[in-house]
Design goal:
Number of domains: 1
Structural class: alpha+beta
Number of helices: 4
Largest sheet: 8 strands, mixed
Distance between the termini: 91 Å
Mean pLDDT: 78
Number of strands: 14
Helix content: 25-40%
Shape: elongated
Strand content: 25-35%
Length: 241
């Protein structure tokens, strides 16, 4: 009786295992090992002080610089930003992350696309807004705000970080998939101030000179940024537009 031949493993299944193994290695390096290394490396960064000038990522890597401050209740901030045609960003979830990836690939506009979380005062942003700037979420204006413990004339003070997304690529520091920002963060700050002014939501603006002692750096994705070092403090109008 003839012996049955032992089935040989298919070449395709071997390639699937190789691809899965490479994907696992990439995930461990980009999302576990490198973030941990950067966390230790940046733990004593001067920006992580009691008076920070930078945000930071969830693993402690310096993030985008702070470049705008608002004075007003949360309702005033919401009214002002919507009147200026900056819309609230959706919360960041796995589903919204997949959606932004698909929208970016197929160039589908999404004016409420989520922004990644950055941290200040030990917590992620309280509010986030964006303004579309093209046919897909890969290019957009966006700003995050954190409510501080400070007040002016009895109204809360907010610190914000405004930047312009120019594309979706791999992080230059960890290899994670992320947005990259334009280097001139002052241009984004000035655009936001102009939009608020056009919407008649500004009562007054004063400038803090020398807010940034270090006027250039790199964010958590490795993107270079530069600033003139000034921080505008914008007092918002109250009530409906």
């Amino acid at each position: 009786m003839p012996h049955s031949a032992t089935p040989r493993p298919r070449r395709g299944s071997r390639w699937v295992r190789v691809v899965l193994a490479l994907a696992l290695v990439y995930f461990l390096i980009a999302y576990v090992l490198l973030p941990k290394w950067w966390e230790r490396h940046e733990r004593k960064h001067p920006a992580q002080s009691e008076n920070p000038t930078l945000t930071h990522t969830g693993t402690g890597i310096p993030g985008d610089p702070l470049n705008v401050s608002l004075v007003g209740e949360e309702e005033d901030v919401l009214r002002a930003m919507i009147a200026a045609k900056w819309v609230p960003a959706d919360p960041l979830t796995f589903r919204s992350s997949v959606r932004i990836a698909v929208d970016t690939v197929f160039k589908i506009p999404d004016e409420n696309a989520p922004v990644s979380n950055l941290y200040l005062f030990g917590r992620k942003e309280d509010l986030a807004f964006e303004k579309p700037a093209g046919g897909s979420p890969k290019e957009r204006h966006h700003v995050r705000f954190w409510r501080t413990a400070q007040t002016e004339a009895g109204r809360p003070v907010w610190l914000g970080s405004a930047a312009f997304d120019i594309g979706v690529e791999l992080s230059r520091t960890t290899g994670e998939v992320t947005h990259h920002i334009a280097a001139d963060v002052d241009a984004e700050r000035d655009l936001l101030l102009a939009d608020l002014g056009k919407a008649n939501r500004v009562l007054g603006t004063r400038w803090i000179e020398g807010f940034h002692k270090e006027r250039q750096g790199r964010n958590g994705g490795g993107d270079p940024w530069h600033t003139d070092g000034r921080l505008p403090v914008v007092t918002l109008a109250t009530g409906n537009p």
